[in-house]
Amino acid sequence: MAEGLDWESLTEATSGSVGALVSTTVLYPLDTCKTKYQAEVQSHGRQKYRNLSDVLWEAISKRQFLSLYQGLGTKNLQSFISQFVYFYSYSYLKRLYLQKSGAKSVGTKANLVAAAAAGACMVVVTHPLDTASSRMQTSAYGKSKGLWETLSEGYSFWSEAYNGLSISLLLTVNPAIQYTVFDQLKQRLLKKQSSKVLQENSESSPAALSAFTAFVLGAISKSVSTVLTYPAIRCKVMIQSADSEDNPDKDTKSKPPKTVLDAFSSICRKEGLPGFFKGLQAQILKTILSSALLLMIKEKLSKYTWISMLAFRQFLLVSQKSTRSH
């Protein structure tokens, strides 16, 4: 069992997941404000939120600041699972490519393919949790249901749990671009260190970037991918959002679009071309901070996680030998 596991991929997945948990928790109020702002569509020339700060001040004025954390548990669960699946798949596919091709390094094209494939695996596995967390974040303050209640809504939820899956699969190009740019920049920087530390021994810990360098590279790589894919991001948020409960007339309660075409036509009809970029600044701020923080933590944890994995593997090997001897 110990020899059959891909320990390097497991290390990447574990450190990436822990980084995702920390970054998600730290930036969650900003994420909730961003999601609420993106989900709102201008109606009859009126809109509730003119900018991101309006969402924050509404929560403060209603004494519902803690409601900005509604859905945090679900978001953390989704972040942990998605990043674990992503980093494990991404690392495994790159190592598999090197083994099969005999190449010394992974090129840009192979990196993009590996990142896109890993992203597709991540989306399929975690999409229902993504939908549930988006519904919680866009619910009225103090009225968000828990994960179990959301999942227990029966056919109503499960029939819509994979709404927006196609656009989410399309958005796998986002992390594919991000991590490919990050990886290429990282490799160039680490080449300067490779002459000092020869990694002939497979048991040695992988080289790591400094926290500041990882943060900067994470910000640069994410900013490019976010700008290029933002219209699709906004459509996805609208599809996954909860029904609006702000209108006192329940019969005219706003319903979120169910398909990409519905979201696209709604934005075109009510907001025009600028509507596709509503909330772009908030998205850039949140995603850059989140991704940079995640990658910074991941890089700093990788060494210690690798050492822990080696110790755990040694423990398993000793246990197996002891069992066989008996």
From TrEMBL:
Mapped Solcar repeat ranges: 7-96, 106-188, 209-304
- Sorted alphabetically, which InterPro entries does this protein's record hold? MCP (IPR002067), MCP_dom_sf (IPR023395), MCP_transmembrane (IPR018108), Peroxisomal_Ade_carrier (IPR045900)
Q: How does it sit in the membrane?
A: Multi-pass membrane protein
Key words, A-Z:
Membrane, Peroxisome, Repeat, Transmembrane, Transmembrane helix, Transport
One Gene Ontology term of the molecular function aspect: ADP transmembrane transporter activity
The domain of life is: Eukaryota
GO terms in the biological process aspect are: fatty acid beta-oxidation; peroxisome organization
Q: Where does this polypeptide localize?
A: Peroxisome membrane
Q: Pfam families per the record?
A: Mito_carr
Q: Name one GO cellular component term.
A: peroxisomal membrane
Family per record: Belongs to the mitochondrial carrier (TC 2.A.29) family.
Q: What's the protein name?
A: Peroxisomal adenine nucleotide carrier 1 isoform X1
**Native source organism of the sequence:** Canna indica (Indian-shot)
